[in-house]
Amino acid sequence: xxxxxxxxxIRLAELIEKKGLNRxxxxxxxxxxxxxxxxxxxxxxxxxxxxxxxxxxxxxxxEIQDCLFLFQQRKSNENRYKCIICILEKRTNVSVSSxxxxx
Length: 103
Hints:
Elements: E1 7-10, H1 12-18, H2 23-29, H3 34-41, H4 50-60, H5 64-67, E2 68-71, H6 77-92
Antiparallel strand pairs: 1-2
Helix pairs in contact: 2-3
């Protein structure tokens, strides 16, 4: 039986836009093929190349956590509701007993 371990998302396109660059400029600065940069921007990568990630982070002057985001699999809906309630409490300063959450 295969378990779901979540998935990794590459946020390169967002970073490139924030830096005011385009994919072609990044590929030139990183000495990479523009198709490879394009695949990373479109999350069309099955195996990450650590050297490529180092080049991209260097060119974009960012940390690795700025490029990658891990979506973790939730164990149950109960954890999902707890997470939503925690977020709401932090944003609104309202306690759980006085808040109703519908998902």
